[in-house]
Amino acid sequence: MVRHTRSRRWTEQELQALLDIWAEPAVAAEIATYTSVRKPVFTQITDRLNAQFGNNWHRDQISSKVRDMRKLYRTLFEGGKYGATTRYNWPYFETMQKIVGNETSVTPQRSDRGGKKGASGDDRGDVSPDGPGDEGNYFSIY
User: Fold this and answer.
1) Which pLDDT tens digit goes with each residue over 26-82?
2) What is the C-alpha separation between 77 and 102, in angstroms, rounded?
3) Is the pTM above the cut of 0.70?
4) Residues 46 and 59 sit within 8 Å (Cβ to Cβ)
5) Is 84 within 8 Å of 48 (Cβ atoms)?
6) Under a CB-based contact definition with an 8 Å cutoff, are residues 63 and 31 in contact?
7) Angle at 70 between CA 68 and CA 73, to 5 degrees
8) Is 43:70 a contact under the CB 8 Å cutoff?
9) CA 20 to 30 Å from 117, out of 31, 44, 76, 142?
10) How many whole angstroms separate alpha carbon 20 and alpha carbon 18?
């Protein structure tokens, strides 16, 4: 059995290169699809990053980084809907908005609330005015 260890942190140059590749329309379109066909695009991204930086990234590491960055973007974006300003502390927010902001993913409204009021006294449920919980250090995905 192969034991996976935590990989090293990404440098700013590596993250920017990943975002530059991801921002290419053809790559963004492939990543945005939710089918098993996505695997080849991560292999291509991995090959390009490894060639550029001389690393030995694996396709799954690239896929995980993309998933984690998309999740963080959406968390910060959703938090901004309720007045949180933490999203502006993440240096990649604007770039992610250009890449992921156009995806046709909408958070569905929960209809099972039954008119219950959240802790803040409104219909939003238990969402705090600062957004969806304390995510700690937003830079931890590096």
Assistant:
1) 999 989 886 666 789 999 999 999 999 998 999 999 999 999 999 988 888 887 666
2) 13
3) no
4) yes
5) no
6) no
7) 110
8) no
9) 76
10) 5
